[in-house]
Amino acid sequence: EDQVTQSPEALRLQEGESSSLNCSYTVSGLRGLFWYRQDPGKGPEFLFTLYSAGEEKEKERLKATLTKKESFLHITAPKPEDSATYLCAVQVSGNTPLVFGKGTRLSVIA
Amino acid sequence: DAGVTQSPTHLIKTRGQHVTLRCSPISGHKSVSWYQQVLGQGPQFIFQYYEKEERGRGNFPDRFSARQFPNYSSELNVNALLLGDSALYLCASTADRDYEQYFGPGTRLTVT
Q: How far apart are the first and last CA of chain A?
């Protein structure tokens, strides 16, 4: 069974304190790994897609990396507006649904 | 460009009732997927439709059904509502089955 595990469940950072969120996965095959940001009561907002080990993508203070077993979302010098739940999802093949982890709830304190 | 839209935003129903949720995909997107998200969990897949045909179904009971219309909008129907059906229902659209899924704002369903 395809599984996605995110850690930590919750993370509290001071403004400017860089850190990383982890997404480990066990799948029969990987077509793509996706990161989303979700604010309370809203739909997930697409951030990145990673397709192969060694790939990296950046957007503002966020950088996502991928290995054969896990992905990291690095947050550099976070600001309070980065506070949200970050979801990781995997897709095994093009016609299969996304399998999500439970998310990491990030709080950035000014 | 307008993103994925969903209606209604919030809904309160009583156990045993029926509910219909609606979704309009991004213009040009032909595939729609439905997910259920309970508090504190990641979204769980319910259905995927592509070109008006069901392409996938998650582990949900037959009380859940969906369809896609010629304009690619979609409806999710849930019969005989249970308390456990209370959740945020998310619709996502993709340009094709192989592309990134973009989510709508969701419909918050509360069953009392």
A: 41
Give me the half-sphere count of Cα atoms (radius 13 Å) on the Cβ side of residue A8.
8
Write down the pLDDT at residue B98. 59
Please tell me the predicted confidence (pLDDT) of residue A1. Answer: 82
d(CA B49, CA B3): 18
Task: Give the span between the Cα atoms of A105 and A10, in whole angstroms.
Answer: 5
Pairwise CA distance, residues B100 & B103, whole Å: 10
- Judging contacts by C-beta atoms under 8 Å, the chain B residues touching residue A34 are 100-101
Tokens at B24, concatenated: 């309009």
> Which residues in chain B touch residue A100, judged by CB atoms under 8 angstroms apart?
42-44
**Cβ–Cβ of B108/A98 closer than 8 Å?**
no
Closest CB from B43, B48, B88 relative to A100:
B43
Longest dimension (CA), chain B: 38
